[in-house]
Design goal:
This protein has 25 helices and 20 strands. The protein is α/β, with parallel strands linked by helices. The chain folds into 3 domains: 401 residues, Thiamin diphosphate (ThDP)-binding fold, Pyr/PP domains (Rossmann fold, 3-Layer(aba) Sandwich); 196 residues, Rossmann fold (3-Layer(aba) Sandwich), CATH 3.40.50.970; 175 residues, Rossmann fold, CATH 3.40.50. The strands form 5 sheets. A 6-stranded parallel sheet has the order 10-9-11-12-14-13, with helices on both faces. The protein has a 5-stranded parallel sheet with strand order 1-2-3-5-4, sandwiched between helices. A 5-stranded mixed sheet has the order 16-18-17-19-20, with helices on both faces. α4 packs parallel to α5 and α4 packs across α11. This is Xylulose 5-phosphate/Fructose 6-phosphate phosphoketolase N-terminal domain-containing protein. It comes from Tulasnella calospora MUT 4182.
Length: 839
């Protein structure tokens, strides 16, 4: 029966196109003979021994619950019943990690201080990463319960994918990790973000060939074009082509060398191939292939690092930066599941997708698979590499010294212990928001222009620790005032290639989000401004990052990092010219699903409040902050001092727009957002003309509305009643989807029935129209607010003076709405009545 799959990792057939000799010549050739002739200097034997141990440790973690060193014959009771983890990628990860350690050690011997981070796209290759971290001593450093002793090893092996132990994938509990890898596609952009403004840092990023099929990874290959070698470190990408993903060939696995060379040369890299070749026929051939593979990779790592230093030296010391530098990358071809079982009676394992996850899933109960597991474990011959526990200088170990020669002597230069990966935070030098606030005589202003003025000062004071990562919308979003202090950063543009610009613009939200994550997790600060409708492209990245940081907060040895800060502007209420596709406030709802203690959602109503919120967010740590603001000129409702008090409280009664300071109101009118607050104030004026007593409230911190205890900012019941009353009718006009506010109010103990609270907002009515018509179409305009307020008052007080006039007043407001609709259809613009400033 045809299955649609091939069962071996045969090399791809040559391209049908005639090879271009000039292109083929671009493949980098390195002097492997130099390494082969001097294996001791390159620690080849130690590299091989380290990998044998790491591969054994990886298998043991996946399969064993006890008897990890096989001090007695293995039994089925020693095998975990719940087998998790992905073995197929582990040998390649152990190979590359070992060579990174060897590179650090060689530089250490020369007296060079090399700082490195290891980022792995195949996150479920955690058994490999954990094994290497255990061998280098980082696991024992952060988790003393797992010492490098035989007893510690037993505990370490059992802990993998065991309740209370290490999860099945790399996460923030993993030393050295700055990327979780749960959702594929972001490893490379995170790696590049990590080295920005870290000139001595080298991040090695292993990109799986399955991950390379994702759109975010495809764009991230361009990331080196934004890396200034004067001020930043370098990334060494290693594309690990093992040919298969979970149950199918990968695209790179089906490409020949010429096709891969053409692709990655086109991206702007120097490409070096390191290849295992066809599957070995026997154990002797396998050993020889592993030897040659390690010799080739050792030579390639040395070449790559030399190229990186050459590019950096030209820019830093020689002051003659290379135009469009072609940074090195390695394409590593190895069989999937290398060193594992070759086949079962049913199918091939090594060099097949069947080795992707757990190659022998029934080993705890099936005799045949159990016996294969026993032979597999024995094939690593670890008895040759372990010894009786020793203690020296307070450190204990059970691994022979020869296997650990590649481990750097300096603890803080081992990738798992590099401080930048877990404790690199440095605060910004921030101006107070009052320094950048608006004078009282300014009546209207753009929130974004006011924020830009503040950010200009931030950039001036923090030239090496703050960046703005923006889609190609920076000027459109009225933030271009920042260019008074900086420029864009794009190395392939002659105008911006030399200076250290603080703004990176490109049209891949995914890549920018990855840059920002890597930048924050290594101690710096950043901002991501975007059109509101399109920030949702990175929603799952935000969610993955929030999960990473939540666990980090619960991990004792990890220190806080700067908050993930977003500004969404060009909002739906002012995207009437671009149409329905540009109208989407959905990110608010996505953030409401995150751990509440990490989420902050701010909707400043005017420029002074926007600057106050921006200053607060840049000073905060470990939050996901969302600022929603308008770029259009809008009323300045509050002075600097008023904005300060209002933002500290999160919400307040605006007495100057209320009846007699808001005392004894008939109705509470609440604005949450810019344009919708304008309509609230306009509605208050309409109602006051009819003798209705109103209390105007503005909410700048959305999370104040939540249930007490659900969020640190949630109002107490007493404070909530003080603002909204216990039985007053309340009309809320919200920037986004009404259900998001309703969800916050729902769980409060007060009787928040629909007869008392009505939430207006965006209800998916949009088109190319006039600005005010967007409010009218979504029933978030001043006339609808007034009509609903009258209806609620009449319902709550059927015998009151407003109830007797309810029919008349409601009809009048609906009629006014209809008149505005006619005006727009006839004139193509909003009338002066609704477009004039309300202040």
């Amino acid at each position: 029966m045809f299955t649609g799959h091939t069962e071996s990792l045969a090399p791809p057939k040559p391209s049908q196109l005639k090879p271009d000799v000039q292109l083929a010549d671009l493949a980098v050739k390195v002097d492997t003979e130099k390494v082969a002739a001097n294996q001791e200097a390159y620690q080849i034997q130690s590299l091989l021994e380290f990998q044998r141990l790491a591969n054994y440790f990886s298998v043991a973690q996946i399969f064993l619950r006890s008897n990890a060193l096989q001090s007695r014959p293995l039994t089925k009771d020693d095998v975990k019943q719940r087998l998790l983890g992905h073995f197929g990628t582990c040998p390649g990860l152990n190979l590359t990690y070992a060579h990174l350690l060897a590179l650090i050690s060689r530089e250490e011997a020369k007296g060079n201080d090399l700082k490195t981070i290891y980022v792995t796209g195949p996150g479920h290759g955690a058994p490999a990463v954990l094994s290497c971290l255990y061998l280098e001593g980082s696991i024992s450093h952060f988790y003393p319960q797992y010492p490098l002793t035989s007893a510690g090893f037993e505990k370490f092996v059992k802990a993998f994918s065991w309740p209370g132990g290490f999860p099945s994938h790399v996460n923030s509990e993993t030393p050295g990790a700055i990327h979780e890898g749960g959702e594929l596609g972001y490893a490379l952009s995170v790696a590049y973000g990590s080295v920005m403004d870290k000139p001595e840092l080298l991040t090695v990023c292993v990109v799986g060939d399955g991950e390379s099929e994702t759109g975010p990874t495809a764009t991230a290959w361009h990331a080196h074009k934004y890396l200034n070698p004067v001020e930043s470190g370098a990334v060494l990408p290693i594309l690990h082509v093992n040919g298969f993903k979970i149950s199918e060939r990968t695209i790179p696995g089906a490409m020949d060398d010429l096709e891969l060379l053409a692709l990655y040369t086109g991206y702007g890299y120097q490409v070096r191939f390191v290849e295992y070749g066809p599957l070995a026929k026997d154990e002797a051939e396998a050993e020889e292939k592993l030897l040659q593979l390690n010799i080739s990779l050792a030579a390639s790592m040395e070449w790559a690092y030399d190229e990186i230093r050459r590019i950096q030296k030209a820019a830093r010391e020689d002051k003659t930066p290379i135009v469009k530098p072609r940074w090195p990358m390695i394409i590593l071809r190895t069989p999937k599941g290398m060193t594992g079982p070759r086949a079962t009676p049913k199918h091939q394992l090594e060099g097949s997708y069947h080795s992707h996850q757990v190659p022998l899933p029934a080993a705890f109960k099936d005799d045949s698979e159990f016996e294969m597991l026993v032979r597999w474990l024995k094939s690593y011959k670890i008895e040759e590499l372990i010894e009786v526990d020793k203690i020296s200088d307070g450190t204990s170990w059970f691994v022979k010294e020869s296997a650990l020669k590649i481990v750097p002597k300096a603890l803080d230069r081992r990738p798992g212990m590099l401080k930048e990966s877990y404790a690199g935070y440095q605060p910004l030098d921030l101006p107070t928001f009052q320094e950048c606030g608006l004078k009282e005589d300014i009546k209207t202003a753009s929130l974004m222009k006011a924020i830009a003025k503040y950010l200009t000062e931030v950039v001036k004071r923090n030239p090496n620790s703050f960046r703005i990562f923006s889609p190609d919308e920076f000027e459109s979003n009225k933030l271009d005032g920042v260019f008074d202090a900086t420029i864009r950063q794009f190395q392939w543009d002659p105008e911006t290639s030399a200076p250290g610009g603080r703004v990176i613009e490109m049209l891949s939200e995914h890549t920018l989000q990855g840059f920002l994550q890597g930048y924050l997790l290594t101690g710096r600060h950043g901002l991501f401004p975007s059109y509101e409708a399109f920030i949702g492209i990175v929603t799952t990245m935000i969610e993955q990052y929030a999960k990473f940081r939540k666990v980090a907060q619960e991990t004792k040895w990890r220190e806080p990092v700067a908050s993930l800060n977003y500004i969404v502007t060009s909002t739906l209420w002012r995207q009437e010219h671009n149409g329905y596709s540009h109208q989407n406030p959905g990110l608010i709802g996505n953030l409401l699903t995150l751990p509440r203690h990490m989420t902050r959602i701010y909707l400043p109503p005017d420029a002074n409040c926007a600057v106050s919120v921006m200053a607060h967010c840049l000073n905060s740590k470990d939050y996901v902050n969302l600022i929603v603001g308008s770029k259009a000129d809008t009323p300045c409702f509050l002075t600097v001092d008023e904005a300060d008090r209002h933002c500290i409280a999160g919400l307040s009664v605006w007495r100057k727009y209320s009846t007699e300071d808001g005392v004894n109101p008939d109705v509470v009118l609440v604005g949450i957002g810019v344009e919708v607050t304008v309509e609230i104030i306009a509605a208050a004026k309409l109602l006051q003309k009819e003798g209705v007593r109103v209390r105007v409230v503005n909410v700048v911190d959305l999370m104040t509305l939540g249930e007490p205890g659900s969020h640190p900012h949630a109002l107490s019941p007493e404070a909530f009643n003080g603002i909204f009353g216990e039985d007053l009718p309340v009309v809320i006009n919200f920037h986004g989807y009404p259900q998001h506010v309703q969800s916050l109010l729902f769980s409060r103990n007060q009787s928040l029935s629909r007869k008392r609270f009505e939430v207006l907002g965006y209800i998916e009515e949009g088109t190319t129209t006039t600005p005010w018509s967007m409010l009218r179409l979504n029933r978030a305009d001043r006339f609808t607010i007034s009509e609903r307020a009258i209806g609620l008052i009449a319902t709550r007080k059927p015998n009151g003076p407003t109830a007797s006039r309810a029919a008349e007043l409601q009809a009048w407001y609906l009629h006014q709405n209809r008149l505005q609709e006619r005006y727009v259809l006839e004139n193509g613009a909003d009338s002066e009545e609704v477009s004039a400033p309300v202040v």
